[in-house]
Amino acid sequence: MQQQQQQLLLVVVVVVVVVVVVVVVVVVEVVVVVVVVVVVVVVVVVVVVVVVVVVVVVVVVVVVVIVVLEVLIVVVVVVVGIVVVVVIHLIDKCYCSISTGIQG
């Protein structure tokens, strides 16, 4: 009888140890899965933020370049217009002087 009780106790201890090991393994697997998911989410968020920042910087640079080019175009057009007006005025003045000189 005592030997049967010892065998039964041994079986119970083995079952308890197996259950504890299984529970520990499952908990460790769940923790590993959660950590992996969190790491993946953090990496995805960082990548998205970096991409958004790069896109915003590129857009700002393009807009600044376009504005600078437009300002330069306006400045060139104004300078060319002033030069043309001055040249036309000088040509007109010279032509009037020459024609007045010829007539007089």
Q: What is the mean predicted local confidence, pLDDT?
A: 91
Radius of gyration: 45 Å
Assembly status = single chain
* General form: rod-shaped
Total count of strands: 0
Question: Percent range for helical residues?
Answer: over 70%
Largest sheet: none
Number of helices: 1
Alpha-beta classification: mainly alpha
Quote the distance from N terminus to C terminus. Answer: 153 Å
Proportion in β-strands: under 5%
Model regions low in confidence, pLDDT < 50 over at least 5 residues: none
What string gives the helices and strands in order?
A: H
Keywords: Membrane, Transmembrane, Transmembrane helix
Transmembrane segments: 7-28, 34-64, 71-91
Question: Can you walk me through this structure?
Answer:
Keywords: Membrane, Transmembrane, Transmembrane helix. The chain crosses the membrane at residues 7-28, 34-64, 71-91. There is one protein chain. This protein is mainly alpha-helical and 104 residues long. The chain is built from 1 helix and no strands. The longest helix is centred in the middle third of the chain and has 102 residues, at 2-103. The radius of gyration is 45 Å and the shape is rod-shaped. The relative contact order is 0.03.
